[in-house]
Amino acid sequence: MEEAKSLLAEMSHKALPPDTVTYNTLMQALCRYGRPKEALNLFKEMCSYGLLPSLVTYSILLDGFCKHGHLDEALKLLKAMQEKKLEPNIVLYNILIEGMFIAGKLVVAEELFSRLFVDGIQPTLQTYSVMIKGLLKEGLSDEAYKLFRKMEDDGFLPDSCSYNVIIQGFLQNRDSSTAVQFIYEMVGKGFSADSSTFQMLLDLESHDEICTDN
């Protein structure tokens, strides 16, 4: 990583100045290694050279900030981005919503989800899956169930990933009856449970057997 940064500095002093793609690559590497604040410094350096950040640039930084708990920085970056009239796309919103749920900021996550519709941005199947997973993590099973059905009503047909997300969430909340309902529904549509779902089912069955024995 240090060699890469040295190479960047060397390029800046030669006739081969780094471009946005070069900076994006380095920022992504820094974020991956848990150094999003250093990535932000590169972002500022890039802007000082007159290079325009792209949506990819912002998605790299937002993902890095959210995954490493720098949520205030992520929201500041979103605001700065909007002030520059560069509107976030659904990929950026998905990153932010997931980051807020990871940090336990349910209200902010729900506000971001609501803002999608105000801004005229179409959610994706992944957006709904992120929301459903987050709601279940917070123990809001009824809200998650309703959102899953709303997702279907809005024309987003659940896939294998969507089903596994909601099944795992209900299993984590010890609601095996609803989980089994979704399992039958999933299998009926030709999808199958992934390894994590199978393991959770086995763990729950073992737990129930122990409780019954006692």
Strand content: under 5%
Weakly predicted, low-confidence segments: 209-214
Morphology call:
elongated
- Could you give the order of the helices and strands? HHHHHHHHHHHH
How large, in whole angstroms, is the Cα Rg?
Answer: 21 Å
- CATH class label of the largest domain: Mainly Alpha
Structural class determined from secondary elements: mainly alpha
Q: What does the main sheet amount to?
A: none
Overall pLDDT score: 86
Structurally, the number of domains stands at: 2
Bin the helical content: over 70%
In words, what does this structure look like?
Mean pLDDT is 86; it is low at 209-214. The chain has two domains: 7-89, Serine Threonine Protein Phosphatase 5, Tetratricopeptide repeat (Alpha Horseshoe), CATH 1.25.40; 123-209, Tetratricopeptide repeat domain (Serine Threonine Protein Phosphatase 5, Tetratricopeptide repeat), CATH 1.25.40. The chain is built from twelve helices and no strands. It is elongated. The protein is an all-alpha fold. The protein has helices spanning 2-13, 20-32, 36-48, 55-67, 71-83, 90-102, 106-118, 125-137, 141-153, 160-172, 176-188, 195-213.
